[in-house]
Specification:
Belongs to the FPG family. The protein is an alpha+beta fold and 250 residues long. The chain contains five helices and ten strands. Strand 9 and strand 10 form a beta hairpin.
């Protein structure tokens, strides 16, 4: 599933392509909202909250969530095929929402009610580390990786960041939150990670942007730990795949 930094970058690209421009085409390919035609309206704003995107057009707000395979593809010659859920065009460009997990056209007035359940957004200007820390430690028995993936705790962390944060703090993904001795440091590190990667196509948590050297443990099963050389282990039995170093994470 795309993480908060990916969605932040998609919002920035949509903002640059659409804001201030008049729609010459609005084709919503979701039966419930197929009659919604915003042609002739001006795109006022594009914003993101966690992994959710909102394109505000006149009195409406187009709400989307990428889920596992979704994306927004932008360009004057962007292809439109059977995977398209929405097509927005202006005089000089086209934005196509492909395989979107969620797509709905809301009343702009209350559009953010759709994300009222989210915890503090790691990439938002109104980010609250205090609230995020309180949310994270609210259930001490909960496995750390599971808590990090809960968007009600902090909005924006996906499986890559959850595994990488566990490594950096020396705890296995299954470790109870209660064993995290400095939760505020983890919350601050999560914010730092996403902020540094928010405009990068190739994210890195190691500080090295070269392919194959950009992550500590995620996706590196049976490969040597970058710190100690132990082989990275994995567990694919849960809802999400987890990765860890058996020596560095105890």
């Amino acid at each position: 599933m795309p993480e908060g930094d990916t969605v932040f970058r998609a919002a920035a690209q949509l903002r640059e392509a659409l804001v201030g421009k008049t729609l010459t085409r609005c084709d919503v390919r979701v039966p419930r909202f197929a009659a919604a035609d915003l042609t002739g309206e001006t795109v006022d704003e594009v914003l993101c909250r966690g992994k959710h995107l909102f394109i505000r057009v006149g009195a409406a707000s187009i709400h989307s969530h990428l889920l596992m395979d979704g994306s927004w593809q932008i360009g004057p010659r962007t292809r439109v095929d059977h995977r398209a859920r929405i097509v927005l065009e202006t005089a000089d460009t086209r934005a196509v929402g492909v395989d979107l997990g969620v797509l709905e056209v809301l009343d702009r007035t209350g559009d953010l009610d759709a994300v009222a359940h989210l915890g503090p957004d790691l990439l938002a200007d109104d980010w609250s580390p205090e609230q995020a820390c309180a949310n994270l430690t609210a259930d001490p028995a909960r496995p750390l990786a599971q808590a990090l993936l809960d968007q009600r705790v902090m909005a924006g962390i996906g499986n890559v960041y959850a595994n990488e944060l566990c490594f950096l703090f020396g705890l296995r993904p299954s470790t109870p939150v209660s064993e995290l001795t400095k939760p505020r440091r983890l919350v601050d590190q999560a914010r730092k990670m996403l902020m540094l990667n928010r405009m990068r196509v190739n994210r890195t948590t190691t500080g090295d942007t070269h392919h194959g050297r950009d992550l500590w443990v995620y996706g590196r099963v049976t490969k040597p730990c970058r710190r100690c050389g132990s082989l990275i282990e994995t567990d694919r039995g849960g809802e999400r795949v987890t990765y860890w170093c058996p020596s560095c994470q105890r």
